[in-house]
Amino acid sequence: IRHTKEIDANIRAYQLAAWVTLRLRPWGWLRWNTSLRTTLHGFTTEDLATTDIRGPVRNGFGMAFAPRTSIDIRLTRQWHLFWAYGLGFRSVQARSLSEGERVPLQKAHSTEIGVRLRLRGWIESSFALFGTYVDQELIFDHATASNLYAGASWRFGGEWNVRLRLFFRWLWLDSSVTYSEGRFATNGAPVPFAPRLLMRQG
Questions:
Q1: Given 3-state DSSP classes, what are the helix, strand and coil percentages for the chain, each rounded to the nearest 5?
Q2: 58-98 pLDDT, tens per residue?
Q3: Residue 36 near residue 59, CB atoms below 8 Å
Q4: Strand 101-102 relative to strand 57-74: parallel, antiparallel, unpaired?
Q5: pLDDT digits (tens, 9 = 90+) for 165-183
Q6: Residues 6+ apart with CB under 8 A from 79
């Protein structure tokens, strides 16, 4: 079987970010944090295996503003209730960009609410419910090196985290389980390739 190179590219990514944070504690049991992050993205793509009509070397740039706010309420010395909202973004496949194109970042509105347990010295655990709204899903088509617009989507789920100290002060066990359901906002169809169950331990 003859070996052919369909994808061969050099990609350089650049990122410059600045942020400002305001931390308030109006009462001893309440903490409120709000912040704004500004990020400048840059990509340089050099296609080596294709004769793309957009040219072998292409540069793309983009800027994103990401506000975030969170509230932490101390219920007892060990239990805390927390809530957070943030506007994030997802980067795109660099090979899809044309020369001088503004990077089409996918905006994602995310919120979560949950509880956190802290027993000093040996265990930290939290459970949260979350929801994410993506205003435009982009699916990368490797054959044409272009993005396909698939519409808005929702993701709902829950996450459990635990951090347990073992026999020594420096030895910890971290575990997490996340379940999420991704659906398109228009017809309720499942989002392709969106994982439902993730488990991690280390």
A1: 0, 70, 30
A2: 777 878 889 999 999 999 989 999 999 999 887 676 666 66
A3: no
A4: parallel
A5: 887 777 888 999 999 999 9
A6: 115, 116, 117
